[in-house]
Amino acid sequence: MFETLPTPKLDGIIGLMQAFAADTRTDKIDLGVGVYRDAEGRTPVMRAVKQAEARILDTQDSKSYLSLAGDAAFLTEMETLLLGGAVPSARVAAVGTPGGTSAVRQICELIAKVRPGATVWVSAQTWPNHGPLIAAAGLTARPYRYLDAEAGALDRAGMMTDLAQAQAGEVVLLHGCCHNPTGVDLSAQDWAEVAALLERSGATPFVDMAYQGFGEGLDADAGGLRHLAARLPEVLIAASCSKNFGLYRDRVGIAMAVVPDAQRDAMAATLAGLNRQSFAFPPDHGGRVVSTILGDPMLRAVWLEELDGMRARVQENRRALANALREATGSDRMGAVAAQQGMFSILPLTEAQVTKLREDHGIYMLWDGRVNMAGMDPSRAGDVARAVAGVLRG
Ligand code: PLP
Ligand code: TYF
């Protein structure tokens, strides 16, 4: 029956991971896939995670099924981490999902249930998985302007003009913080302006939060989301614990909807039903690690200290690369890299220049010039900057 099955093109980021692994050059540098790396280039299991896992190993007496929504303690702790009490719990419905990817997909399926084919506005540059996940649920992605490439900053006027066209029954996808791929985030004032636009139009915000804690800090990074939740009747949320708990392959995420009290129970049952039709019970182990850490003051302190260290390292790498680029190019054209947030920035390179960096210098980045700031040790910033300056000169 599969004689005519075509070979689909898979995720380009994963292709790049495989190419990097196969590259035998010892001085190669991986600025591709978005995983955190320490000074030795490792993606370690966080200390608090190891301790929580040891505790779970000792005390867990059953692995029997729980509910379709997953572990209640995980859902409650995540609600507090994300929303910080901005709305009463009586307005919040949530389910665990296998990673943030699945949370995005489940929210898209939720939208499709009430508005088949609905428009989802996405920033013109966005995570390469957003388009396929939106399309898989039969929804229609429509871009809004986002990055002012020249300034390395928000195209505020372009964004607000485009979002003013979003209507009730349409959805606006926003990155909660640490925008992937640009590193350009909204200020508190920008969030307030977006909230005012959505309040006027009745369009529904959908916040994808994959890097809480990597920008300015746990609460500051959720400030925009909390503002929307406090002000608007409906907010959709997909969050990932892959980066801030380092739980990537354990697949820990949450799909959440903030709705008026009267719709909360229907929403909770609908989200649970969506889980049932795709995988039934969400994976439990990683979520239990998260709730064990967040629910214990000692483990929480250990986790926060390590997360603060990860954020500081990414910021240090940003400054190191911005300085090295200034030195190597003799210009401040890429100076904005220092001020951007989270793991990613876009360097102003063509796809041919990106290919040359990979082939001639063993420096791997995404086809659109996206670099993962955590992929590099500051001691290699000079090598990266000189190679980038070289390909820019042609
Ligand atoms: N959303 C964005 C913007 C991301 O960058 C990622 C990747 O980490 C995710 C969602 C989901 O990641 P995961 O499925 O690994 O939790
Ligand atoms: O953008 C990234 O690199 C991360 C990791 O299908 C990732 O978000 C990449 C591809 C993918 C899922 C996660």
From TrEMBL:
Cofactor(s) listed in the protein's UniProt record: pyridoxal 5'-phosphate
Gene: tyrB
E.C. no: 2.6.1.-
Lineage: Bacteria, Pseudomonadati, Pseudomonadota, Alphaproteobacteria, Rhodobacterales
Name of the protein: Aminotransferase
Subunit structure: Homodimer.
GO BP terms: L-phenylalanine biosynthetic process from chorismate via phenylpyruvate
Enzyme class: transferase
Family matches, as CDD domains: AAT_like
